[in-house]
């Protein structure tokens, strides 16, 4: 665990907790590591959501699939980010989504009950952890609202323009790199990959954007 402490400390969940306290905190939370290959499942739909996950290395996708196997990426989870916290804290009986590794990854699993319940040694971490967790959930609600702004547009072109515009504002530049490959981008916007590719090519031909793989420039 020692080599992962610095990565863990950068996670918003542990903001404000001093380095000297991290080892004791990890022991208190009974955190455990999980190594997964790209495409492997971390959490499966239907499972009981007892754990909160933290990506230490790599990335993950929170996905939802319908009866016919059509996939939508709800959230992209990067190193240092959490997943599964809303379902775990809500004490849902089963997960309505799955979490899969977007690339070879290492994740940290923490039993949510260990965060919400003070341990017998009465450590002083829990108040800070709960405060941090509330802030993370609030920020994720904001992110989901932004996503709704993109996917509720009528056409694929409008969805793409909405998303790329938001990325430019977030990065403070008209050139930026998105977190998705082409299939993941289509899944995120809830469109067909072929429709997305055609739209991007038309927008490039019209001089609206330039792109190389997942690096974009808005002209």
UniProtKB/TrEMBL annotation:
The keyword DNA-binding applies. SUPFAM superfamilies: cAMP-binding domain-like (SSF51206), Winged helix' DNA-binding domain (SSF46785). Keywords: DNA-binding, Transcription, Transcription regulation. Residues 13-111 form the Cyclic nucleotide-binding domain. SMART domains: cNMP (SM00100). It comes from the Bacteria. The keyword Transcription regulation applies. This is Crp/Fnr family transcriptional regulator.
